[in-house]
Amino acid sequence: MSLVEIKDLKVHYPIRSGFWNRVTDSVKAVDGISFNIEAGETYGLVGESGSGKSTTGKSVVGLEKVTSSSIMYKGKDITKKANRKSLDYNHDVQMIFQDSLSSLNPRKRIEDIIAEPLRNFENLSKDEEKLRVLQLLDIVGLDADALYKYPHQFSGGQRQRIGVARAVATNPKLIIADEPVSALDLSVQAQVLNFMKKIQREFGISYLFISHDLGVVRHMCNNIAIMNRGRLVEIGTRDDIYNHPLHIYTKRLLAAIPETNVNDRAKHRANRLAVEEVYREQQDKYYDDEGKAYPLVQISPTHSVALPEDVAKELILKEGEVQA
Amino acid sequence: MWKTILRRVLIMIPEIIILSILVFLLAKAMPGDPFTGSINPKADPAQLHHLMKINGLYDPWYQQYWNWVVHLFHGNLGNSYQYQEPVTRLISSRAVNTLWLALFTTILTYCFALPMGLYAAKHEGKLPDSIIRVYTYVTYCIPFFVILVIGVWIFGYVLGWFPTTGSISSTANPGIQSIGSRFYHILLPGVLGALFGTVNVVQYLRSEVIDAKRSDYVRTARSKGVPEKDIYKHHIFRNSLLPIAAFAGYSITGLLNGSLFTETVFSYPGMGLLFINSISYRDYTVITALVLIYGILNLLGTLLSDIILSIVDPRIRIE
Amino acid sequence: MGSSTQFLNIKDVSTAFKINGKYYDAISHINLEVHHDEILAIVGESGCGKSTLATTIMGLHDPAETKITGEVDFEGTNLLKLDEAGYNKFRGAKIGMIFQDPLSALNPLKRIEEQISEVMTYHTNFTAEQKHKRVLELLDQVGIVNPERTARQFPHELSGGMRQRVIIAIAIACKPDLIIADEPTTALDVTIQAQILDVLRDIQKENHAGIILITHDLGVVAETADRVAVMYAGQIVEEGTAEQIFNTPKHPYTRSLLRSMPQRDNENDDLYVIQGNIPSLQRMPHDGDRFAPRIPWVKDSEHEAEPTMHDIGDNHKVRCTCYKNFEFPDETGSVKL
User: Fold this and answer.
1) In which order are the strands placed within the sheet that holds C66-74?
2) Minimal Cα distance from B8: which residue of A?
3) Closest chain A CA to residue B6
4) What backbone torsions phi and psi does residue B160 show, to the nearest 5 degrees?
5) For chain B, what is the domain count?
6) φ, ψ for residue A209 (rounded to 5)?
7) What is the model's pLDDT at position B39?
8) CA–CA separation, A45 and A253 (whole Å)
9) CATH number assigned to the domain comprising residue C55
10) C184 and C212 in contact (C-beta within 8 Å)?
């Protein structure tokens, strides 16, 4: 059984208009996505701004009011608040945010910030609690004197590690990481990513890693989902997505990642322009009449793509020919 | 936009009804009655009883309220017990006086405050800024009625330059002379009010301008080669005055509230003085009418502010 | 760069900020040249001084809070010696600037047309009609589909990518020789980023401008730049063509940065982590190699006492001598946490 099963998640925000200010329409931030999270695995959720990836993350952790869906954890639907409470859901599922400065309370000391989830979920004595916080600081590579400092006294990378320490304080089973490194410098980013991998190895945590950076996602995630306009357009393993992308949107994203290989600059650019061309011309083939992505079709045990079946088959054939 | 305004006005109706009930009940809950103090203490209690009865003061509160509302729709707010004249006439004559004084004071306040705020922000941290800051804080710290009393004493009694009571000289002929006389009466309270009422606008504008000075779009303007003088004129001042303009919408409707201190010290027959007097004389009809008017004006002021803001700021659209 | 001509020469420029009454160098002794028809990328992490260099060239610093020394020679004029009015003849006209956050860089209360034509008001004799025509032409040039409509809109009505195109239109309105782009795509999605970089490249070709592209993103550099200067702690540590920097990087910092990037081939490995932290402005080391504390295994004798730039052939320059025998230690990758 999967750790968490998300079924047909929808988050719609109402648009009010007219004289009586009634709900006349809605913004479909997330519009029917389903996926499962297995224990100890890392899932990458990739999309551009406005794709609904952050909303999805917040829904899974219970921070978003979902329009309709079931998110099953230990056999109960945690979109209901009562179930989240009875399961101590947020003991097991924690979140790391992008902006480490604004997500840590500026008036609280690091000791209190890291101890907060412990105080919420575990009955520890003062000494036990302190010991645990010190252990956590040690895990994230900070000295004991950090205990009595405030968030602004740390660098961005250190703060992000404090955010991670807080998230792992309760030994969670799943951590939702929403753009955890996109505000960080390259050298600091490397530190945080290594560290996230390390605690995963040690504690068997699952990650839902939300990012717009396909380079980072490739490094971190074995399973990747591409999100576009509130829907999933492609799901697959790292190899499926990066080496055999099928949906035009996936191809487009991949083609746009800047490559550090200077020698192939011209080739890379030509490829990108070619993909953009196809994207412009064949919109109707990849999206339905309303501009929505099609439902996902499974094309291999690991790989699904949001296309009508015949189109998907045609694409697979074509790719096979190219490779042969 | 008209739709929204109409909707907002409609929403105001239940608000006003609730407000009027509250006002009515509060006035009723006040101890005392309008007659005991004003008739001969030796008068027969039965006579007082009779007075109360013919004025409907023994009816249940909802009955009294209903009568009041019915009269309200006939433009009749009742008679003032104290002045023995219709409340509508009483208030409208006072409202005109207050409007003159408040308008003059407000215009003068902005005339003082805007240049001060802009100048302080432009020379942030330098001497002029410090002087203006000290000035605004000093004026803020001294209680306003103290200033008024001192002002009246020096300029009214000692020097005798300005009148100390009333809104118009009783000997003024209609026409130019009466306008002159009115202006003469509001000059001293107006100037004092403006000189000592600048702190909010000055400090607000100053911080707005300082924010704008450091904003990215001003940096963009600099990198376009726009001279500093024009940057202030076209970018900084304009953008910083925006919230002030919106606030002005609110203060326009506030003009009628009248200033309690100024009108009391100068015995200026405006709304503020009327309000104080009617409370001390338990003049229910006047109190309820005034509070209701203040309430409606406040609601209208918020609406007016929103409308002004949506006109001057393109990011805000009333849909 | 055979046919290109150098028109901007930055000579020994240092910029110091006043903090609590003392001056601290944000950039020190920068030497750089910019040519027509080239994109020079300045790359480094936050706090390395790359943006300070840009604002120094633009003269955007408050003289009361900064001390700038050296010379910025722009076609024979030393910009640093100009007064406000003199500088304004260059800003907007001969130098255009593109900023990181396109929303805050535009005045929220003015229509796009007004914001673009403003720059022409100060640098051309165009009539209102000519300005209007030029605005539409510019919007078209930066790839905006419906220029008439966009010209009438306000910044908040446009998408991030559109706003950045408008900023570019402002920067190029007077066909400047030099365009300084400070993190022009950092706030944008990758697909939009690619489009914006394309626009920049096309404009550079059309106008024969020189572009200084300031970024922290090595990928963007590799895709766009002709020449690259790598900055660390206020100094340039390596300078060369894009090929030299990416194919044969020499300076330990450049090599460390490239190794700490998630790449195609290191998916399951830990990333390389540079030891220590970037020094803050107040704690900037002044003697010796500023990068030395972050490669502690390299012997002192490998470093120069006063590191200078060394030309190692074909205009490929490296600071200090420590690059010669530099190797990453064996335990690379598994960094103590």
Assistant:
1) C22-35, C6-19, C66-74, C77-78
2) A19
3) A19
4) 65, 25
5) 1
6) -100, 110
7) 59
8) 13
9) 3.40.50.300
10) no
Q: Do C99 and B234 touch (CB under 8 A)?
A: no
Residue B266, helix vs strand vs coil: coil
- Give the model confidence (pLDDT) of C287-310 as tens digits: 788 999 899 888 888 898 889 999
Q: Kindly report the CATH number assigned to the domain that includes residue A238.
A: 3.40.50.300
**Residues 7-36, chain B: which have Cβ within 8 Å of A?**
7
Question: How many Cα atoms within 13 Å fall on the side-chain side of residue B105?
Answer: 28
Secondary structure letter of residue C277 according to DSSP: -
Dump the DSSP string for C165-193: HHHHHHHHTT--SEEEEESTTTTS-HHHH
Output the six-digit token pair for A244: 């055999």
Number of domains forming the structure of chain A: 1
Q: What CATH number is associated with residue B131?
A: 1.10.3720.10
Residue A156 in any domain: the answer is yes
Contact at CB, A19 and B7, closer than 8 angstroms: yes
Measure A198 CA to nearest chain C CA, in Å: 9
Backbone torsions φ then ψ of A73, nearest 5 degrees: -140, 125
Chain C residues touching residue B314 (CB < 8 angstroms)? 108-109, 154, 156
Kindly give, in sequence order, each residue whose CB lies less than 8 Å from that of residue B40, ignoring residues fewer than 6 positions away: none
Q: Give B11 to chain A, closest Cα distance, Å.
A: 11
Q: Please report whether residue C223 resides in a domain.
A: yes
Comparing CB atoms, the residue among B216, B220, B225 nearest residue C88 is: B225
Name the closest residue on chain A to residue C246, using Cα atoms: A262
- Is C120 within a domain? no
% residues pLDDT > 90 (chain B): 11
pLDDT band of residue B43 (cuts 50, 70, 90) is low
Rounded distance between C-alpha atoms, residue C174 and residue C124, angstroms:
8
- A5 in a domain, yes or no? no
Cβ–Cβ contact C159 with A under 8 A = no
Tokens read off for C155: 């910044």
Is B252 within a domain?
A: yes
> Which of C160-185 are b and which e, b meaning 16 or more Cβ less than 10 Å from the residue's Cβ?
bbbbbbbbbbbbbbbebbbbbbbbbb
Q: Give the C-alpha distances (Å, rounded to integers) separating B19 from A129, B25, B95, B156, C227.
A: 54, 10, 21, 41, 72
Strand A231-237 relative to strand C77-78, pairing: unpaired
> Average pLDDT in the C267-282 region?
81
Instruction: Give a yes or no: residue A93 inside a domain.
Output: yes
Q: In this predicted model, what pLDDT tens digit does every residue of B303-318 receive, in sequence order?
A: 888 888 888 888 876 5
Residue type, C77: T
Give the ipTM of the model, two decimals please.
0.88
Tell me, yes or no, whether C337 lies in a domain: no
Does residue B65 lie within any of the structural domains?
no
Q: Is the model's pLDDT at C115 over the cut of 60? A: yes
Task: For residue C40, give the 3-state DSSP assignment.
Answer: strand
Note down the domain range covering B151: 87-312
B6 belongs to a structural domain? no
Closest partner CB to B223 (pick from C97, C107, C154) = C97
Residue C155 lies in a domain: no
C-alpha C215, offset from chain centre: 6
Domain that holds residue A229: 36-67+75-244
Domain with C239, as residue range(s), is: 8-94+176-263+270-331
Q: How many domains does chain C have?
A: 1
Interatomic CA distance for residues C197 and C223, integer angstroms: 9
B216 interfaces chain A, CB cutoff of 8 Å = no
Does residue A263 have a pLDDT over 60?
yes
Q: DSSP 3-state assignment of C270? A: coil
Nearest by CB to C107, from B217, B223, B225: name it: B217
CA distance B48 to chain A (A): 52
- Residues C60, B219: C-beta atoms closer than 8 Å: yes
Residue A323 maps to a domain: no
Residue C216: predicted pLDDT: 92
What confidence score (pLDDT) does residue A323 get?
Answer: 62
